[in-house]
Amino acid sequence: MIPLKYNVRNLRVRWKTTLMTILGTALLVASSCILFGLVEGLEYSLKVSGDPLDLIVLRKGSSNETTGGFETSKADQLLTLPGIQRDPSGAPLAAKELLNIANGERANGTRNNLIIRGVQPASRDLRPDFKIVAGRDFVEGRGECIVSKIVSRRYKGGQIGGLLYFGDKEQYRVVGIFTAGGSAAESEVWADLRDVEKNTGRDGSVSCVQIRAASLPDYEKLQKTINDDTQFKLEAKSEKAYFEDQSRMGLFLKAAGTLIAVLLTFGAMFAAANTMFAAVSSRTREIGTLRALGFPQSDILISFLGESFLLCALGGALGLLATLPLNLLTIETFNFGSFASISISFRFGWTVAAVAMIMTVAMGLFGGMFPALRAVRLEVIAALREL
Amino acid sequence: MEAKGYSFMRQTSSIVLRSVYKEYRRDEFVIPVLADLDLEVAEGEYLALMGPSGSGKTTLLNLVAGLDRSTKGEVTVHGQVLGHLSEAEVTRWRANNVGFIFQTYNLIPVLTAFENVELPLLLTSLSRRKRREHVMTALRIVGLEKREHHYPRQLSGGQEQRVAIARAIVTDPYLLVADEPTGDLDRTTAGEILDLLELLNREFQKTIVMVTHDPLAAARASRVLHLDKGRLVDEVIQETRVSIAS
Ligand SMILES: Nc1ncnc2c1ncn2[C@@H]1O[C@H](COP(=O)(O)OP(=O)(O)OP(=O)(O)O)[C@@H](O)[C@H]1O
Ligand SMILES: [Mg+2]
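Above: inputs. Below: predicted complex with adenosine-5'-triphosphate.
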C-alpha cells in the first residue's frame, strides 16, 4: 500500500489547485444541499400540518381553502354533527375559518400576498403545538391579530404593537407572535373570524371548516355523512390528503433539485478529474518509480482514487458545513395553489446528508477514475523517461 | 545434464541473456534496439555498460531488471526466467530481487528520507518496528542516518542519490541496477557515490549492473562492456579488480 500521507502531502503541496477544487465542489454540494433542505422543509411543514383525525371541509369541487367558500349556515350545521372530538370544557374541536388573501407590504418595500385567516378558538387546538411565543393572544372583536415569526419579521407593522395595513377597511393590530409546530399555519396572519368577516364584507360565508373526529370510526362516519349529503354540496377531505395535495410543489422542486444536483455533480466531476489528470501527469515519473520499486497496478489505482476521494470529501464536508447556518434560514415562496406566500424553513435531515454523500462519492469516484486509470496504464519505462 | 547445466548457471552466473533481441514498435515503424545479444554476468560481479547514446544501454538494463521484456530470446536472473512471469509476478519479483538507482534519483518529493527508504518495505509484511530497523540500517550504510527527517529538497544531489541507494538496498535485493548514477553529480560527489557502490559490491556481495558514460566510473567496475548499435563490441576485464573478484 502506498501510504495515505503521500496523497495528503501532495494535496498540500499543490494547495492552490487543491483549494480551488475543494471550494468548487463545496459550492456545488452546498447549493444542492440547500435545495434539498428546503424541499425537506416544505414536505415537513405539510406533513406536520395534517393530523390523521382531522377533516377539512370545503365546497364540493374546490381543491383549496382560498378558492370558494360556503354559507355559514351550513357550517353551523356541521359543528353539530355527532362524532366530533370535544375539548375538556366540552366544546367541539371544530372551527369555521375564513381566509382572505391580502396584499401586504414587506419591510423592504416590496409587496406580497399574505393569508389572513379568521379563526375561532378551536382553530388553535386543531394545529400541532400552537403556542403564543411573544405578546398575547388576540381578543375577539377588537381588530387584533397574531402573526407567525416570519410574518412578524418580514412585514411592515408586523412587530408586536404594529399595525398590519392592507387597506382602509382591513387592518389589524399585532398583539402576539405564534408558532404552530412548523406547520403551514406559520406563514399566516390570524385574526378573529368576525373581524375578518366584517373587514372583507364576506359576512355569512366561510372558507372552510376544520374538524377533528373523536376516533377513526367517527372520522370515517363524519366524512361519509358530509360527502353523501346532497343538500350540503360539501366535501370533507382528509387533512393529510389535502396537504399532500398541496405538496405537489415539493415534488416539482424535488425533481428540479435532483436534475440540478446531477448536473452540478457532473460539473464537479470534471473539476475533480481535471485536477487529478494534472496530478497524474505531473507525477508521471514518480508513478514509474513506484512501479519499478514493485508497487502493483492496483496500489497505484487505489492511491490515486483515494486522493480523488480525499479531495472531494474535503469539498463535500466544507459544503455541508456551509449549510449549517442555514438551519435558521426560512424563505418565502408562492404556494402555487393559492398564490399566497408560504414560508419554507431549511431542514438539515437525512436527505441533505445523503445528497452530500452521494454527490461526494460520485465526484470522487468518477472524477478520479479516469485519471487513476491513466496512471495505472502508464508504461513503466516510458514513465521513467519523463522529466 | 540439463539439471546440472542449470545448477551450474545458478551458481556462477547471476544473469544470463541468450540470443536476446529487442525491438520497439511505434505505429508501423519497427525500431530494432538490441540484436542477438548473449551475456552472462557472474554472481557478485560489478558490470559497467558503456556506449554511445541510443546504443541500447538503458534498454538492456531494463530487460535485466524486469522492467521490460525481450522481443525474442531469454533473460534469466538468479535462476528465474523473466519471460515466464506474468506482469503482476514480475512486479513482485522486482520488489524482492532488484534495487534501482536512477540518474535523477527519483525520490518522492513529498516523503522524507526515512519514508522514501521505507517505501519498498511497505510491500513486505514486516512490522513497523522491523521496518524502522531496516531503514535505519540502510541509512547508516549510506551515512545519512541523521538526515532521516529531511525532505529531498533539503538534501544535496549527492545526498539524494545516497538516499536513493539506501532505498535500493533496504530490501536486501540480489541485484542492483544503476542507470548513469553519477550523471548529474560533480566529480567529488560522483566519487563518493562510486565508493558506496564499490562497498556494496565488495562488502555486501551485491551484483551490480551500471550504465555509465564516465570512464572513471567504469574503471571502478570489475568488468566493462561496450554496446554499439545494440551489439556488444568488446569486453575489457579490469585487471585491478580481477584478483579481488576471483
Ligand atoms: N519506449 C521506446 N519506444 C521506442 N523507441 C525506444 C523506446 N525506448 C528506447 N527506444 C529507442 O531505443 C534506442 C535505445 O535506447 P536506450 O534508451 O536504450 O539508449 P541508451 O543507450 O540508454 O542511450 P542514452 O545513453 O542516451 O541513455 C534509442 O534509439 C531509442 O530511441
Ligand atoms: Mg539510457
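The CA atoms of residues 58 and 227 of chain B lie 11 Å apart.
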